[in-house]
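Invent a record, attention on tokens:
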Amino acid sequence: MDFRALPSGDYTLANVTVPACLLGQEGDLVRTELSIVDGRIGPPQGVAVDMGGALVLPCFTDMHTHLDKGHIWGRAPNPDGTFMGALTTVAADRAANWSAEDVRRRMDFSLRCAFAHGTRAVRTHLDSLPPQDGITWPVFRELREDWAGRIALQGVCLVGCDAMDPEGAFRDTADIVAASGGVLGMVTYPVADLEARLEGFFRLAAERGLAADFHVDETMDPESETLRAIAKTVIETGFEAAVTVGHLCSLSTQTEARALDTLDLVAKAGLNIVSLPMCNLYLQDRQAGRTPRGRGITLVQEARARGINVCFASDNTRDPFYAYGDMDMIEVMREATRIGHLDHGETGWVQSFGANPARACGFDTQDLTEGAPADLVICRARSWTEFFARPQADRIVLRDGRAIDRTLPDYAELDTLMRTA
């Protein structure tokens, strides 16, 4: 149940707590009021509801997800929790089970979760090695149309850099992505001809007017430095579209001087960084019988200090890469704050879960100033410590100023899919 009922029509949320940066002000949290007029934040008007200091945030943008992998754990659990265990398990499940119906039902399930939790825009990576690209991308286009007006949906192809031949089959995948209004994506790891592959990748993207999004250095091996290669290639080629790099785990194991020098290159290249702390904490530095020493999270504070656009996102949901998660950006905020020590320092980190990822993806950004859409998440918490202490299960989610039904889909809906393996 939502913690407070709100009236129909226009009204004012009186006595609310808002991050100052979302009002264009300095500082951390401020007490104010927000009026809802014709589905937008408007000028003050008469019907007021005392919210008791409730914290108000804009609805979220989740810019790095894997909707096509989601919720396969019931039939394809990771045997040992490792990265290689995830890769091999997903590959086997994809070959056996990823029909159009299977992918559609699981993707739609995740979108219903995200919507109920207060997300308004999602970028999803889609496994795109043929023939899967011919199965999943049509489903993605159908879902994007089905969800229009509720969740803005954006797709990114996902292939390994050793399988990305710019003169081969990947050209066809790039054409599918372009025809779908998507983003060109790739996983980078050390291969002998990485620079040539990157140049070919960016050439394909530029020819089709596509932005780029990479999985990068998802390992604790300090010798994995494909991030430097991406940044250098962007600088050298003058690639103009937006480029996002995700994970960057190896930065956390490199020497301070080397890691910071790489971040200087990232800043010069104008790359967007997205950190996936929950999945990285789950997979990285996992060895049987040994307590993990490393967190896997990339250097978000050092990146932000260099003016780099830093974002956070959900990543995987109940699949071999991450056994948990529910497409809930408040959970991502809570865990990122704890894992990355985002508290007790710079304010404004809330932007990394909304405006920053929206800007990176080209979605409409949202703040809480007059004229903005009344797409809001309202929590009973009156301060950050209250907000992060509990999961905010009784939050109110407004879309166009009206409270939505936040009932989450039942996992039992997917039981028939779990019996297909």
Q: What stands out?
A: DSSP finds 13 helices and 15 strands in the chain.
